[in-house]
Design goal:
The chain has 46 residues and is mainly α. The chain has one domain (1-46). 93% of the residues lie in helices and 0% in strands. The protein is built from one helix and no strands. The chain has one helix at residues 2-44. The longest helix is centred in the middle third of the chain and has 43 residues, at 2-44. The chain is rod-shaped. The mean pLDDT is 89.
């Protein structure tokens, strides 16, 4: 049981930080994809 607690303690924090950063980046990537989809329309309208 001590091995598992050590594993969770050592790996748990980096995993939590990774998921937090991926969650934040997901919204920004969605905005980027939407902007790229709108780009051809904006270029044609000029």
């Amino acid at each position: 049981m001590d091995i598992w607690m050590s594993f969770v303690t050592d790996v748990g924090f980096p995993v939590a930080v990774t998921f937090y950063l991926l969650h934040r980046m997901e919204g920004k990537l969605d905005d980027l994809i939407e902007t790229l989809h709108q780009l051809p329309e904006k270029l044609l309208s000029k």
